[in-house]
Amino acid sequence: MKMSFQNTQWMKYALIAIIGCVIGGGVVSLVAFDSNKRDAEADREYLQHVSENYRIYALPLPEAADFCGEAAPLEKWDVAEKLDRELLVNSYWHSNTLLAIKRSARWFPLIEKVLKEEGVPDDFKYLALVESNFTNATSPAGAVGYWQFLAETATEFGLEVNDEVDERYHVEKSTRAACKYFKQAYNKLGSWSLAAASYNMGMLGVQKQIDRQKQNNYYELLLNEETSRYVFRILSMKEIVNNTDKYGFVIRPSDIYAPIDSKEVTITGSVEDFAAWCQEYGVSYKDFKLLNPWLRQAYLKNKSGKTYVVKIPD
Interhelix angle for 225-242 vs 192-201, to 10°? Predict the structure, then answer.
């Protein structure tokens, strides 16, 4: 059926009144305008309403910020502005940061325990959060897992990586491998901030800049765009996660993602079919694979006869 121009115009006004969604003070208000008014007049009313009600706030910087006890010199204009940028990006990227906060409640306890056992400062848990947002993402370069290890680096620091087993996806083991890296980088570079920066740029890359610029302070080095933002991204997430109310995130205890109850089972031989194996333990294959993403196949040949500890729902 063909519509006349007049009917089309009528539908334009009748189907939707001009609605302004105004976010302010944590409240969303829907403001409808008279659909019979001329476009220009309705547009003017809409724009006036938005200008009077829509608010996006600049954020006050914290009085102090530190990574692993190493203070960020916020009195320096470039340092203050870099932290300001990351606070704005992460606080206004609502969905991503809200998910990060919810997931951190699940994974921080395990990572904190490993960091403490390995003698690595607790603040490195925020590096994992920044690296992966606690998802098993794969980077364009092929880095995977919560700590985003490349295969070569993973094996260098003691992780098993092959077609059947990829311990980059094993949260506890990959955290211990990351700790080995951080301690080695700290011993080489002399600060935890530089160790964190090297996780993005590589130890050799950071050392090269230290030698070139004759400066061994992260905040005094001129680095590439990504690495110059890297520690500030960590600082911003540390600030937001620890001060959710200050940055407008309203999260009830029931909203967080709690740790998953599980128990351990030891495998010493091969498993021909994990789906059948799961049935013996009364668990689903899906739940098993979610708890053990480091097992990459539906079977485990285990030709070397290793002992593996897997998790199943408790």
Answer: 120
User: What's the whole-number average pLDDT of the chain?
Assistant: 90
**64-74 confidence digits (pLDDT tens):** 999 999 999 99
State yes or no: pLDDT of 127 exceeds 60.
Answer: yes
16-25 as b/e, with b when 16 or more CB fall inside 10 Å?
eebebebeee
Asked whether 311 and 261 are in contact (CB, 8 A), the reply is no
Cβ neighbours of 107 (radius 10 Å): 19
Which DSSP category does 140 fall into?
A: T
Query: Would you list the domain boundaries of the chain?
Result: 5-53, 66-255, 262-313
Cα within 13 Å of Cα(183), Cβ side: 13
The pTM is what?
0.86
Mark 226-264 as b/e (b = at least 16 C-beta within 10 Å): ebbbbbbbbbbbbbbbeeeeebebeeeeeeeeeeeeeee
Per the CB < 8 A criterion, the answer to whether 160 and 153 are in contact is no
Please tell me the distance from the alpha carbon of residue 283 to that of residue 264, in angstroms, as a whole number.
13
DSSP 3-state assignment of 146?
coil
Domain 66-255 top-level CATH class: mainly alpha
SS3 141: coil
Mean per-residue pLDDT, 58-65: 95
SS (H, E, C) 176-230: HHHHHHHHHHHHHHCCHHHHHHHHHHCHHHHHHHHHHHCCCCHHHCCCCHHHHHH
CA distances to 38, 136, 157, 196, 262 from 147, rounded to whole Å, are: 57, 9, 12, 12, 22
Q: How far is CA 268 from the centre of its chain?
A: 35
Q: How far apart are CA 151 and CA 160, in angstroms?
A: 9
